[in-house]
Each structure stands twice: as C-alpha cells, then as structure tokens.
Design brief:
Layout lengths: L2 E7 L2 E6 L2 E5 L20 E3 L5 H4 L2 H8 L2 E5 H9 L4 E5 L4 E4 L2 E7 L16 E7 L4 E4 L9 H6 L4 E5 L8 H11 L3 E5 L11 H10 L12 E3 L1
Parallel strand pairs: 3-4, 4-5, 5-6, 10-11, 11-12
Antiparallel strand pairs: 1-2, 1-13, 2-3, 7-8, 8-9, 9-10
Bound molecules: nickel (II) ion and manganese (II) ion.
The site of nickel (II) ion has 6 residues, from loops.
C-alpha cells in the first residue's frame, strides 16, 4: 500500500492509509493557508501532536461531526473528552498503538503544549504513522532540532514532515541538520508562511536540501505526495 499525504496548510495533514482517513493537527478555521474547511473533511482518526491552537485547531468540531477517534497525549485526550469528543484515546511519549489503519507511535519533540483555554497540555509529541506493510511517515511537529532524531531515522522513515521556519520551531540550517539525522526517503517542509513571523523562502531551503541529496516534496496547500 501507499501513503497519500495531503498538506492542508501549516501543520495540518490528511493522510489516506489504505482507505482509512487520518487527519493530523487539523488547524483550518483561522488558518490563512487552509486548503479545506473543517466541515468538508472526512476523518476516521485525528492525531493531535500538542495543545497549541494551531494544532488542536478544529479537532473538536471534526471529531464530533464525524465520530472520529482522536489520538493524542493523555492530558489532551482528557481535555477533548471535556469538550464532548466521544472517542479520545490518550497515549504518551514513546508509546504507540495499533489501529485499523496500522500503527501510531508518539515520539519526543522539544516544544511546549498548553491548550487554547490555558489548560495543561502535557508533553508535546512528534508522531510516526506506520502502514500495515511497514511504511513510515514521521511528522516531527513543532520542535527544536535534537540529536535523537537519528534514532527515529534508524527506524527507516519513508516520508518526514519537518517545520522549516522559525520563531516557534527549528528552521533553516537546523531543519537541514534534522533531515540529515532522519534520512527520510522524501522530505515534506511545513509550518511556514502561515503568519508573518514564520514567512520564509521555502524554495531556497528546498534547494539546499536537494543539494545535500535529499528528495523534497515542496507542496502547495491542497497538494499531495504518495510514498
Ligand atoms: Ni506549537
Ligand atoms: Mn505550531
């Protein structure tokens, strides 16, 4: 099988895993780059990497409308249940679980994680989606560069989404160093140009990554990559 990963703008993705739809960090309302509205997206699962509003986004509304199961850390899952989300699974860093799309694993990420109403959002995470035949999509999510990305790379990552600019996350040369540690088959730059503080020249970053021998899927919001 293949992953079809559609970038919805910012850090939001819609992932088709053998017909099962997994949304990640569905921030659409208020996202100037959003390639879809919250009320038109299908979801069987919604993965939330951390509590910030540009990641929790429309998760509550989409989960209530579709009945999707949310997958997040324990603290966020408790908060989602309080908001009326019917099926909210709470995992934690280093843990994972098997679902009908395959497997999800939560990795470390160096960031923060308060929820939109100020509630404690637990630890921030990256996430690895693993198809039933073992293909791996690593979404580094909001994070600084860290050396243990090498260990994540050792798992054999087919596609990696990395934030490339700035202010809130690693950017530029740190993001390039991250790609060198992760060694993915394809790199997907994200978390840029949404707001003035994170505007960047993604093409210039892509050129540098390609000069290092990496394959980059520089998508416009709404475009997809298959691996
Ligand atoms: Ni964040
Ligand atoms: Mn963010």
């Amino acid at each position: 099988m293949t992953f079809k990963v559609t970038w919805l703008g910012h850090a939001a993705f819609s992932v088709d895993m053998d017909g099962v739809k997994v949304l990640i960090d569905p921030f659409l309302t208020g996202n100037p780059l959003a390639a879809a509205t919250a009320d038109e997206l299908d979801a069987d699962y919604i993965v939330i990497t951390h509590g910030h509003g540009d990641h929790v986004g429309d998760a509550v509304a989409i989960a209530k409308r579709t009945g999707a199961t949310t997958l997040s850390n324990v603290e966020i899952s408790r908060w989602l249940k309080k908001q009326g989300v019917p099926k909210a699974e709470g995992l934690n860093t280093g843990g994972g679980g098997n679902f009908d799309f395959g497997r999800v694993e939560f990795t470390i990420a160096f960031h923060s994680s308060s929820l939109p109403d100020g509630s404690y959002g637990g630890m921030p995470n990256g996430v690895i989606l693993i198809s039933k035949d073992g293909r791996k999509f690593y979404d580094a999510a909001d994070t600084a560069l860290f050396g243990d990305m090498r260990l994540i790379g050792d798992k054999g990552i087919d596609l990696a989404a990395v934030p490339i600019c700035d202010w809130y996350t690693m950017c530029g040369d740190d993001a390039l160093r991250a790609v060198e540690l992760i060694r993915p088959g394809v790199v997907l730059p994200m978390h840029y140009d949404t707001f003035p503080a994170i505007e960047t020249d993604a093409k210039a970053w892509t050129d540098k990554a390609e000069a290092k021998g990496f394959k980059v899927a520089l998508l416009r919001p709404g475009e997809s990559v298959e691996v």
